[in-house]
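Per your request, structure below.
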């Protein structure tokens, strides 16, 4: 998952209220969308850290591709890994809770019961790395700048936050246009704060390799454009003793080395040139690390279970293209993927088929709609596939032999009904236009190796498929501009679905270039269900609304679901240690809580 997606999916919150009604405000050290706060006031540290972890040492991490910018907050450019280490946010989420954040730059928050605004009380000791104070002016500037000039995702996420107002040097108020959106406090709590004075001299919306001024725990020590970036821990970091930071940021240096090819990165790890590898390819996990260092314990090879929603990894079908607009065509393409054969022969039976957009979480739909979920869906019955109410959604399941004749016969029937017929071995429509699919891949992707079986099944249906391999820069440009038939994407879900659903599925985001509505969904029912998820007043309603949204997305066959795994596959040289209990919701497997063994 990239850094922008991590900012988006784990953005925090905050609350505020009018001065005239100050006595009515709740003042808190933490905020939770649904009120379930684990840690008490004056807590010492999070449970998943070692408060006595030694500081020092370094860790070298591999990355695939390249970078050309240190600005992760705009659409332009390819930002370097871990640029978020340069910036602090108003609040910080805990990685063993859902939808809860605690004060970082903000020492407390104030908010009314009606959720019309939130106030952040800032810590006067907060400082940028040049020693200058961080004040309300910087917070207001950061919000206004991101909303006007930031990545389109910020404009979507902050759409219902009307304004930021300085109340004093260390007090800021944010007013909301839609109080029904309960997570607005969390969203604005995740606001990264920039120096207004610094950006009076530099343009915010430009890609740059000039290390920016921030207030976070690290500085950039060395930069080799496109090849490496080294972060150095700040000894003078202003927030190092706050409870949210105790036991974290233990490495003196964090280095990211870039490789254009996965196989080269693996060899670099095995030679000791890099220290840790997160392996996401089943074949490599099974075969690529049979080396003496693993056998004698110099390299640790371990699976770490997590409870992070896997979301939906899939082939995106670009509904902006006419050939994908008919649901029968999309369903036929689903029938051409033989997951069971692939899992058995290519993946060493490592994966589970993803049958939900919220896989590996309580938000995944199952069975038939009932109870509150059925109540939510009932008004839209006439606009939904009738099977949604009478059949459990199930993806095709083969016997793993590689022979899926019955699936392909059904797919052919659906294509014929949609007006596509085979002529001289080629699928064409009434105008004689051929049905072809171009599969966009990033250079170095492992997917090229596994496309063969899927492509052969498409060929049986008369569909010509080609692979288009492009470099990192072109890949980003094409996906930002929605210029593809299909590509592999993961719609990563947060621990508490909310405003990010607007980015994924809502009609308002379908034409926003650089956005994440890669499918191009423009469905009025989906719009209503997204809004219901965001407005859910309690966990029960959130579950029901999310189940309903999941079910409607599935029955529309917008994507070809792939697979997921509920653990991290890690290999690392045995010179690091980590807490016995790792955070179950951290997409970075708690790496910021690790330390070097001296």
């Amino acid at each position: 998952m990239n850094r922008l997606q991590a900012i988006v999916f784990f953005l925090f919150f905050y609350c505020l209220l009018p001065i005239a009604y100050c006595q009515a405000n709740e003042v808190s050290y933490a905020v939770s969308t649904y009120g379930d706060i684990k840690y008490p006031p004056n807590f010492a540290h999070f449970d998943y850290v070692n408060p006595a972890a030694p500081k020092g040492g370094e860790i070298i991490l591999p990355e695939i591709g390249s970078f050309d910018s240190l600005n992760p907050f705009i659409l332009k450019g390819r930002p370097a890994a871990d640029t978020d280490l340069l910036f602090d946010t108003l609040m910080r989420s805990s990685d063993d809770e859902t939808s809860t954040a605690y004060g970082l730059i903000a020492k407390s928050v104030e908010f009314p019961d009606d959720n019309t605004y939130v106030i952040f009380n800032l810590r006067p000791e907060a400082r940028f790395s040049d020693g200058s104070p961080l004040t309300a002016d910087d917070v207001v500037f950061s919000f206004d700048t991101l909303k006007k000039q930031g990545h389109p995702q910020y404009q979507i996420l902050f759409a219902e936050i009307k304004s930021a107002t300085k109340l004093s040097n260390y007090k800021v108020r944010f007013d909301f246009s839609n109080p029904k959106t309960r997570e607005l406090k969390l969203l604005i709590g995740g606001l990264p704060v920039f120096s207004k004075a610094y950006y009076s001299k530099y343009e915010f919306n430009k890609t740059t390799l000039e290390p920016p001024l921030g207030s976070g725990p690290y500085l950039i020590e060395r930069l080799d454009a496109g090849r490496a970036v080294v972060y150095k821990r700040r000894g003078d970091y202003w927030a190092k003793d706050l409870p949210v930071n105790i036991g974290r940021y233990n490495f003196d240096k964090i280095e990211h080395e870039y490789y254009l090819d996965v196989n080269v990165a693996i060899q670099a790890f095995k030679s000791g040139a890099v220290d840790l590898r997160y392996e996401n390819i089943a074949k490599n996990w099974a075969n690529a690390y049979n080396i003496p260092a693993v056998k004698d314990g110099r390299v640790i090879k371990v699976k770490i279970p997590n409870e992070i929603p896997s979301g939906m990894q899939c082939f995106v079908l670009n509904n902006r293209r006419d050939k994908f607009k008919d649901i029968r065509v999309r369903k036929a393409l689903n029938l051409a993927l033989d997951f069971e054969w692939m899992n058995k022969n290519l993946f060493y039976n490592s994966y589970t088929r993803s049958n939900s957009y919220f896989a590996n979480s309580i938000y995944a739909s199952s069975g038939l709609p009932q109870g509150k979920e059925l109540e939510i869906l009932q008004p839209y019955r006439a606009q939904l596939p009738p099977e949604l109410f009478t059949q459990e959604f199930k993806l095709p399941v083969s016997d793993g032999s590689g022979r899926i004749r019955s699936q392909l016969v059904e797919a052919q029937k659906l294509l014929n009904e949609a007006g596509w017929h085979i002529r001289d071995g080629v699928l064409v429509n009434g105008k004689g236009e051929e049905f072809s699919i171009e599969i966009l891949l990033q250079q170095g992707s492992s997917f090229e190796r596994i496309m063969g079986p899927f492509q052969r099944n498409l060929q049986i249906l008369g569909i010509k498929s080609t692979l288009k391999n492009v470099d990192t820069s072109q890949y980003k440009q094409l996906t930002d501009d929605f210029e593809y038939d299909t590509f592999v994407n993961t719609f990563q879900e947060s621990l508490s679905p909310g405003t990010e659903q607007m980015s994924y599925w809502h009609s308002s985001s379908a034409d926003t270039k650089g956005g994440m509505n890669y499918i191009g969904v423009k469905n009025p029912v989906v719009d209503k269900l997204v809004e219901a998820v965001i407005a859910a007043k309690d966990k029960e309603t959130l579950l029901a609304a999310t189940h309903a949204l999941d079910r409607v997305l599935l029955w529309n066959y917008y994507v070809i679901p792939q697979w997921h795994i509920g653990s991290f596959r890690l290999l690392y040289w045995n010179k690091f240690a980590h807490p016995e209990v790792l955070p179950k919701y951290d997409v970075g497997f708690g790496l910021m809580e690790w330390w070097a063994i001296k």
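The first helix runs from residue 3 to 9.

Regards,
D.
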